[in-house]
Amino acid sequence: MERLKSNGGGHVNSAFDPNLDEPPIYEETEFSNDEHRTVRPSVISAFGHDTLDRVPNINFYRNAGSVSGHRAVRPSLQELHDVFQKNGRISVPETVTDNDEGSEGTPSDDLESAAPSDAKDGGIKFGWIRGVLVRCMLNIWGVMLFIRLSWVFGQAGWGLGIVVIALSCVVTTITGLSMSAICTNGVVRGGGAYYMISRSLGPEFGGSIGLIFAFANAVAVAMYVVGFAETVVDLLKEYATLMVDEINDIRIIGCITVVLLLGISVAGMEWEAKAQIVLLVILLVAIVNVFVGTALPPTADKKSKGFFGYNTKIFMENFTPDFRNGETFFSVFAVFFPAATGILAGANISGDLRDAQAAIPKGTLLAILITGVTYLAVALCVSGTVVRDATGNTTDLAFPELPCNGSAAVACELGYDFSSCATEKCNFGLMNNFQVMTMVSGFGPLITAGTFSATLSSALASLVSAPKVFQALCKDNLYKALHFFAKGHGKNNEPIRGYVLTFIISVAFILIGDLNAIAPIISNFFLASYALINFSCFHASYAKSPGWRPAYKYYNMWLSLLGALLCCVVMFVINWWAALLTYGIEILLYIYVTVKKPDVNWGSSTQAVTFVSAVSNALSLSGVEDHVKNFRPQILALTGSVRARPALLDLAHSITKNYGLCFSCEVFVGQRSEVLQEMTSGMEKNQLWLNKTKRRAFYAAVACDSFRKGAESLLQASGLGRMRPNTLMIGFKRNWRTAGTEAVQSYVGILHDAFDFEYGTVVLRMSQGLDVSHLVEAEEEMLKAAKEQQILDGEMMPNGGKARGLFRKSRNSSQQVLTTRVSVCGPPPPQVAKMNERLVEASAQFKKKQPKGTTDVWWLFDDGGLTLLLPYILSTRKKWKDSKLRIFVAGQPGRTEIDKQEMRSLLHKFRITCSDITVIDDIHVRPHDNSIKKLEDMIEPFRLHEGSKGRDQAEGMQKEYPWKITDAELSTFEEKTNLQIRLNELLQEHSKSANLIVLSLPIARKGSISDFLYMAWLEVLTKDLPPIMLIRGNHKSVLTFYS
Question: According to the UniProt record, where is the region Disordered (predicted)?
């Protein structure tokens, strides 16, 4: 590569590679040839010369707009490849700015494009302890620890109780492992579980689970606050200080509590984190208080209530289960498991973590371990010190002469007679008293404080989680109506609107909600999130996508699948109708997002699995030999741009629909270097248009020096394995008489190539024409002009184009660019405008439902059945159901009925119904003289007229004009020429009013029939008729009457 000399300390080459992270630093370098240059050390040390190539840099791999709206760009392959052709004068921008659109032209206001907040700018970022560990522990250590844990172990015994806790920990641990794998497979932004599921499984799964997960957190706030309020009301009752009554006091205290929690949350994450630390300290003291209390010697009052201190006999008596009141292992498990559903508390604020990839796995898994051990330890301590039943009466002492047996045998041995509990309901003991922890603790009020701490911390965590997840969901704009809640405020991008919505929901449920009924639904919502997190990990692993490279390696895809199944089972164990309701809501939301088709592409594992399945199915199909019963037309339509010939594309799509391949193909004619950029830029745009307009077709384009070579490439290379096109569909060339020799030869040559490659061939003609590309270009020009004017208006207007008050611009000047651009072209003449109007109307003919009428099939030559199969397929489509098939066949005079009966029998065997069969027995009749005269006048400019010349002169003329129609050719094919004229007369007579005519396509023998004569045949055959399809199969059977 040529070396560039220094020019006053600045480089001549504008495309020299500068440092992407900071301003380039240059130093003087002396070379062996006494040349001095200013060079950048890092580039010279790596390559020894100036280069347009960039060294690897993280900024090249950022998503659009990820760093304050700017991202670094590396030189494109074309820029590197063409640099010498353009004398090295290529300017490669260092960064690009994404204002309203991402790099692909899609909205860039999703989570990927949000500028990450930095602690240096005032935003609060948490480490793994404050951000994840503390939050998860507080959420898992709920009121279950102090109120219901003793009851669980009383019912199940500590043997099955350990199984209950272990099974819960297994589910949460597997989910934690799966979550760790997902969140270490790339940068994790705000949104927690929603973000991970949506980026793994796609917007359909993420959008459905994100909404119900955010709602579940909002309602969970009400549940935890009501738990807190109930504890407060119990204290008020104890001291006879109720304000109104029990229910209304719960509502009043609950609403006041939510307001206070909302104030803490809105004040900022830093205040919320400080509040969590205070609550954690209280909770830890309360837990320690339980352990200390069990070690203290029991008082007589505590003994009467079933607490005797550590005793082996009590411990062994509590080993076996003692299910009462219809409880079972699964019902007890259903009571306990919701306590374990706090493992996402840290992940839910993933956007506020300093390093979410490191913090979430470490904090979540450690929290599961610590809380699991704590639950187990507290439960075992209580199981070894408290009996199942106690009267609470200090006078119920056991006398030595009484035998100790039955369920109260251990208490009897310890000096207390609780045998009455076998016949009467007692209020104390593991089975009866929810305040066992308060009784056994060293200082009872601390347990009450611990209960307050547990409920308030869980409520606060849910109050923070719900708006964060909801904001992430709204930012992705999956639900257009909810985009209002995407806006954040302050340096930490706090979702104030989400906080208010969560507050309203929680207050509403506190005031009117039946929380006992709603509780199992909320637990199932959380479990559905866990199930999808596990399934996301399994799905991504199963897809074997090269992009699935989690830094966390301690996971297993089958273990994740087991975790997903366990979550689904637990959902039904907790409450079967709540599980069904959860699935129903999730399916409805999934369908809604799927139908809306959000304009996002996150590279989900669903896409990866779809690709793997497609490859697998294609390979399986390639090993199966084609069979006539499974034949279906796979159409390669030469439409040009997908919008250029809508009628051709619509008809092709009507045939293939969702059941066959359809290629919309375009050939860019010219030097490859000149047309390549246009072709490349149009590839994605055309495919997106097909998807948007629900055409199940593929767009393919090639760049070639000639149209025929491009079409030949498409015919040979399109498709994959058995999934290859077998039918060419092309529009009739209406301007063949003025297009020039080369264009006509190219067009007819494509038909010859299709026959050579054994393609079925379809030529479509409509009297108004097919090509509307000039109208599409005019429309795009108008839209471009309007956009330019909009930009101009924005530049001339203050506040970025948002005119307000005195600065509101007059709309009269807003047409400046638009009027100028349109006036250059000027409006079309009335005649042209009317033609364009008819053309647009005709181009949409096959898009709408066909009126009542007929599809006339002139099956004149047996081509394998394609001429009959295609109109039959059309007749099965909803838009064509009112267009009945009529079959026309050629017959001999005097055999009309016999020929009709034979055709009817054949159609019956093919199971194809038609409304009528007509035998044409006068095809051989000579056409009218005026029809022949019209053909002669048509081909006159293309005739050689060598018959009236001498032999040598005639040979010279043939060499000079080899493409012209010779007299010998006309004489040889006079009968076939007359046949085309006669067929047009018959078509005018029988099918003038048909919705569509299908006719066997005449074949031009290579080297025998000139291109212009063949075009004259097609012209005279299809002139002045309704839409007509000329079809010729490849003469291999596509119909069979065998089963």
Answer: 1-37, 92-117
Please report whether residue 294 resides in a domain: yes
* Position 40 confidence tier, pLDDT thresholds 50, 70, 90: very low
Name the DSSP class of 17: -
Q: Which of 777, 797, 812 is the last residue of a domain?
A: 777
pLDDT the model gives residue 796: 60
**71: its two tokens:** 């991202």
Rg (CA), the chain: 40
Q: 46: number of CA atoms within 13 Å, CB side?
A: 11
DSSP 617-661: HHHHHHTS---GGG----EEEE-SSTTT-HHHHHHHHHHHTTTS-
How far from 1019 is each of 587, 734, 1013, CA to CA, in Å?
55, 8, 10
- Domain of 656? 632-733+768-777
Distance CA 73, CA 93 (A): 7
Tell me how far apart the alpha carbons of residues 471 and 488 are, in angstroms, rounded to a whole number: 8
pLDDT in tens, 969-1001: 888 898 999 999 999 999 999 999 999 999 999
Distance CA 68, CA 93 (A): 17
Last residue within a domain, chosen from 747, 777, 807: 777
Task: Please say whether the beta carbons of 113 and 65 come within 8 A.
Answer: yes
State how many domains the chain has: 3
Amino acid 102: pLDDT = 39
- Confidence bin at 745 (pLDDT 50/70/90): very high
Beta bridge partners of 96: 71
pLDDT of res. 173: 93
Alpha-carbon span 322 to 146, nearest angstrom: 21
Pairing state of beta strands 760-765 and 853-858? unpaired
Residues 6 or more apart whose Cβ sits within 8 Å of residue 684: 104
What the block records as the tokens of 884 is: 């009945």
What distances in angstroms separate CA 886 from CA 376, 652, 705, one per listed residue?
A: 81, 21, 44
Place of tokens 């077998």: 726
Alpha carbons 474 and 480: distance in angstroms, whole number: 8
Query: Taking residues 828-857, what's their average pLDDT?
Result: 83
Average pLDDT over residues 869-876: 93
Q: How far apart are the first and last CA of the chain?
A: 69
Residue 953, burial from CB neighbour count under 10 angstroms (0-12, 13-18, 19+): exposed
Token pair of 833 as six digits: 């405008």
Q: In this predicted structure, what is the pLDDT of residue 2?
A: 37
322 and 255 co-located in one domain: yes
What are the residues facing 920 on neighbouring strands? 890
Q: For residue range 242-301, what is the model confidence (pLDDT) as tens digits? A: 787 778 888 888 899 999 988 888 877 778 788 888 888 999 999 999 999 888 888 888
More confident of the two residues 504 and 676 = 504
Name residue 89's amino acid.
R
Phi and psi at residue 1004, in whole multiples of 5°? -95, 120
Which residues fall within 8 angstroms of residue 943, CB to CB, at 6 or more apart? 964, 965, 966, 967, 970
Examine the domain organization and report whether 494 and 571 are in the same domain.
yes
759 near 727, Cβ under 8 Å?
A: yes
CB 392 within 8 A of CB 427: yes
pLDDT in tens, 758-815: 999 999 999 888 888 888 888 878 887 877 777 777 666 555 444 443 334 444 444 4
Q: SS3 for 761? A: strand
- Asked whether residue 898 falls in the same domain as residue 948, the answer is yes
- Whole-model pTM: value is 0.73
- Of 5-14, 139-148, 353-362, give the lowest mean pLDDT range: 5-14
Instruction: Note whether 317 and 230 are same-domain residues.
Output: yes
CA 205 to chain centre: 9
Cα–Cα distance for residue pair 41/30, rounded to 1 Å = 12
* Residue 702 in this model has a pLDDT that exceeds 80: yes
